[in-house]
Specification:
binds zinc ion; 8 strands
């Protein structure tokens, strides 16, 4: 009984994740510095290490918002997100769908899911 409930809640999550929209853009504002080009931690003395101070990032469309950092480009501690490398988005293939290995959670136990690189979508 408990198991069935787990499956149900998992499926609900997957359906929610399916609504993650693919965006067909070839550049995005840098998530890590929010487009300012400055390192958010060290201010204008340092260039943002993610975009190299341009405030913009070239991406290969389509892209989806990074599942791990939810598009912020950073982890809780202020470090660059390991999954998207601070970009806040991840490139996916045109016909990408929910990852069958992790069912869209992006997680494989305590690690991130390898086939989808933690994005839950491949
Ligand atoms: Zn930046
Ligand atoms: Zn990320
Ligand atoms: Zn996966």
């Amino acid at each position: 009984m408990e198991y069935a409930q787990q499956i149900l809640s998992r499926l609900a999550k997957v359906q929610g994740r399916n609504s993650r929209k693919k965006r067909f853009v070839d550049s995005v504002p840098c998530a890590f510095c929010r487009g300012s080009g400055e390192d958010p931690k060290y201010g204008n003395a340092s260039r943002c290490s993610v975009c190299g101070a341009s405030g913009k990032l070239k991406v290969t469309p389509p892209v989806v918002t990074c599942l791990k950092c939810r598009g912020s480009g950073r982890e809780g501690s202020g470090m660059t997100c390991l999954s998207c490398k601070g970009r806040g988005v991840a490139s996916v293939s045109k016909d990408a769908g929910t990852c069958v290995k992790c069912l869209g959670t992006g997680k494989d136990g305590v690690f991130y899911c390898t086939p989808c690189k933690g994005q839950g979508i491949v």
